C-alpha cells in the first residue's frame, strides 16, 4: 500500500505524518461462522418454501427462526469487523474499537520493542494472523492487531517504519540511539 497524507476521521495526523497501512480484521477469520450463518438462512428460506407448499405452520415457524439466527450471525460478524480498525502511520500505530462508543489506542513506533506474529495452521492456510506489539513500559503498554490479513507484510511495515525512528535512551535523555530492526 502506498503512503497517503490523510487517514480515517478518528486519526489525527501531524504535519509530517503519513498513513502507511490501514486495515481491519480479515473476513477470512470469520469464514466458518459466515458459512454457518449463510447455511441457516438458506435452510430457513428452503423451509419456508416447503411450508407454503404443504401448508405446515410448524416448519414455517422454525424456518423463520433459522433465518433470524442466520441473519443475526451475519450482521454480528460484519459489525464486529467494522468495529475494529487499525492504522499504521509513519510515526504511530492506532487501534480503534467500538461503534457507538469508541476507544482509540496509540503507540509511537519508536517505543515498539518487539512484534510477534501468531498463526494457527488454519490461519496460515487462509493468510491471516495476529500481531502482538510489545512496547517499553511493561505488560499493559502494547496491544494486539487481531486477525490481520497478511500479517508478515504488516509486521514488516512496522519493523521498517519503526526501525528508522530514533529511540531516546531512558538513562541519558540527551543521547539518541538508533533502533534496531525487530525479529518476528
From TrEMBL:
<keyword id="KW-1133">Transmembrane helix</keyword>
<feature type="transmembrane region" description="Helical">
    <location>
        <begin position="58"/>
        <end position="79"/>
    </location>
</feature>
<feature type="compositionally biased region" description="Polar residues">
    <location>
        <begin position="174"/>
        <end position="184"/>
    </location>
</feature>
<protein>
    <submittedName>
        <fullName>PH domain-containing protein</fullName>
    </submittedName>
</protein>
<dbReference type="InterPro" id="IPR005182">
    <property type="entry name" value="YdbS-like_PH"/>
</dbReference>
<dbReference type="Pfam" id="PF03703">
    <property type="entry name" value="bPH_2"/>
</dbReference>
<feature type="transmembrane region" description="Helical">
    <location>
        <begin position="31"/>
        <end position="52"/>
    </location>
</feature>
<keyword id="KW-0812">Transmembrane</keyword>
<feature type="region of interest" description="Disordered">
    <location>
        <begin position="160"/>
        <end position="184"/>
    </location>
</feature>
<feature type="domain" description="YdbS-like PH">
    <location>
        <begin position="82"/>
        <end position="152"/>
    </location>
</feature>
<keyword id="KW-0472">Membrane</keyword>
Amino acid at each position: 500500500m502506498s503512503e497517503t497524507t490523510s487517514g480515517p476521521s478518528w486519526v489525527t495526523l501531524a504535519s509530517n505524518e503519513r498513513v502507511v497501512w490501514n486495515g481491519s480484521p480479515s473476513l477470512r477469520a470469520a469464514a466458518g461462522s459466515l458459512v454457518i450463518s449463510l447455511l441457516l438462512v438458506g435452510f430457513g428460506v428452503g423451509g419456508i418454501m416447503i411450508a407454503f407448499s404443504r401448508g405446515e405452520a410448524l416448519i414455517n415457524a422454525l424456518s423463520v427462526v433459522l433465518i433470524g439466527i442466520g441473519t443475526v450471525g451475519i450482521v454480528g460478524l460484519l459489525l464486529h469487523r467494522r468495529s475494529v480498525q487499525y492504522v499504521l502511520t509513519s510515526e504511530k500505530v492506532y487501534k480503534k474499537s467500538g461503534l457507538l462508543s469508541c476507544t482509540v489506542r496509540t503507540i509511537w513506533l519508536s517505543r515498539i520493542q518487539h512484534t510477534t506474529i501468531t498463526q494457527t495452521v488454519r490461519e496460515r492456510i487462509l493468510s491471516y494472523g495476529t500481531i502482538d506489539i510489545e512496547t517499553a513500559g511493561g505488560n499493559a503498554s502494547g496491544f494486539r492487531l487481531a486477525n490481520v490479513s497478511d500479517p508478515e507484510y504488516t509486521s514488516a511495515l512496522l519493523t521498517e517504519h519503526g526501525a528508522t525512528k530514533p529511540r531516546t535512551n531512558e538513562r541519558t535523555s540527551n543521547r539518541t540511539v538508533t533502533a534496531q530492526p525487530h525479529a518476528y
